[in-house]
């Protein structure tokens, strides 16, 4: 198979499943990550022969993409804040909206030294790893209920050469945090079953439901529990940061007020949806 015939096969197999723009990005990702080539290499030498083993790998990727498996699972990683983050079926694939939350925290705290940070529901570890890369000598802690997620996050911390303290724990049965923090952050599960109709197959069928879904009758359960614990564990100049369900901004702000947070800021993501909250005293 040549590069050109690979490209033709990719587009022909996937055109009934995905918009062209998405197939374009699959093409680029496979070129870069499976073949170690750029689009310029392709343009210069479209008839270059693809080796047999790469050929088999590419055929496998194409047929799995046709089943809507996420491209990040097929190549094994994604990029988050320019870091390489390994992903698998046990962790949520880090989203660009979460990068915006990280930028907000860094904008507020990047010059402060020795921060104590706690992340709840770490999944791949993308949040504490990205914070650790940009904060000076921070003490970064993270909790997750899933041992498989913690294993993945630990590998990611190793790959990215950062030091993080991992705690295997269910936040819903936690009675208090072990210390005071400058920053508490969480992107907990927040999707209701009633929103399933809006979701794509690659998310619904291949990403962990434990990381995504909450009960329709108590969709802010994690926000409530974390805020109740955080109110007595945030230092005077500290803050609580949440990624939120775009449809639940009002409810989340209301519950933070009830718990005792005075200043609450809501921010939209790049798509114009209510997506992040910062709460202070
Ligand atoms: N904190 C991780 C992330 O932002 C995992 C979130 C989750 O699984 N709900 O991607």
TrEMBL record:
S-adenosyl-L-methionine binds at residues 121-125, 144, 187. One of its GO terms (molecular function) is nucleic acid binding. The keyword Methyltransferase applies. The keyword Oxidoreductase does not apply. Belongs to the protein N5-glutamine methyltransferase family. PrmC subfamily. Methylates the class 1 translation termination release factors RF1/PrfA and RF2/PrfB on the glutamine residue of the universally conserved GGQ motif. This is Release factor glutamine methyltransferase. It comes from Wenyingzhuangia marina. The lineage of its organism: Bacteria, Pseudomonadati, Bacteroidota, Flavobacteriia, Flavobacteriales. The gene is prmC.
């Amino acid at each position: 198979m040549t590069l050109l015939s690979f490209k033709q096969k990719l587009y022909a197999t996937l055109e009934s499943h995905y918009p062209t723009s998405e197939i374009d990005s699959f093409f680029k990702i496979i070129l870069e990550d499976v073949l170690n080539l750029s689009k310029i290499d392709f343009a210069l030498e479209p008839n270059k022969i693809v080796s047999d083993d790469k050929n088999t790998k590419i055929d496998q990727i194409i047929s799995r993409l046709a089943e809507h498996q996420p491209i990040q699972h097929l190549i094994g990683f994604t990029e988050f804040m320019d870091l390489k983050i390994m992903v698998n079926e046990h962790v949520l694939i880090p989203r660009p909206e979460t990068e915006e939350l990280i930028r907000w925290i860094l904008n507020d705290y990047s010059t402060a030294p020795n921060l104590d940070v706690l992340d709840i529901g770490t999944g791949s570890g993308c949040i504490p790893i990205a914070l650790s890369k940009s904060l000076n000598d921070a003490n970064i802690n993270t909790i997750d209920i899933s041992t498989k997620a913690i294993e993945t996050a630990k590998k990611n911390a190793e790959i990215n050469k950062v030091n993080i303290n991992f705690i295997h724990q269910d936040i819903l049965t936690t009675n208090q945090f072990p210390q005071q923090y400058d920053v508490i952050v969480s992107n907990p599960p927040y999707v209701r079953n009633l929103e399933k109709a809006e979701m794509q197959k690659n998310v619904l069928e291949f990403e962990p439901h434990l990381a995504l879904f909450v009960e329709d009758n108590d969709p802010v359960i994690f926000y409530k529990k974390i805020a109740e614990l955080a109110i007595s564990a945030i230092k005077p100049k500290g803050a609580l940061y949440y990624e939120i369900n775009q449809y639940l901004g009002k409810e989340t702000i209301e519950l933070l007020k009830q718990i005792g947070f005075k200043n609450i800021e809501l921010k939209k993501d790049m798509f114009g949806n209510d997506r992040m909250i910062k709460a202070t005293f």
